[in-house]
Amino acid sequence: MSDQNVNDQKSSGPKKEKALNDKLQNIEAQQQEIKNVETDLKEEKFEIALNKLEKIVNQLEGGNLDLEESLQIFEEGIRLSRVCMRKLDSAQKKIESLLKDQSEELKVLNLNFNLGDESH
Predict the structure, then answer these.
(1) Which sign, positive or negative, has the C-alpha torsion 107, 113, 118, 119?
(2) How far apart are CA 28 and CA 56, in angstroms?
(3) Which structural domain, as residue segments, surrounds residue 38?
(4) Distance between CA atoms of 50 and 4, rounded to whole angstroms?
């Protein structure tokens, strides 16, 4: 092997290592972002997320923000709307499950509720 080839291999080693380290840091950053989103989904209550979303809508409708600010809060609004949708979907599935499991009891409760409304 020529001296030039040996020198090329020595200089490319640190470059490859740096590239791999950069990729690793990028992957770690993406994993942290996923953990942050999962935490947001677990911790953020529906009512709080909806309230924040309403404020964002009002800000955007006001039209007093520059483009960069608008895009930034729009992005947050999308995140919050997804949180709300997931929470609503989860609640709907839970209700459907309860309705299936407790169908006999719910029929009785529904009948009692209807009778109670008619007497007022």
Answers:
(1) positive
(2) 30
(3) 1-43
(4) 64
**40 vs 93: CA distance, rounded Å:** 20
Residue 67 shares a structural domain with residue 120: yes
The 10s digit of each residue's pLDDT in 38-85 is 665 566 788 999 999 999 999 999 989 899 999 999 999 999 999 899
Question: For residues 29 and 52, what is the distance between their CA atoms, to the nearest angstrom?
Answer: 26
Domain count, the chain: 2
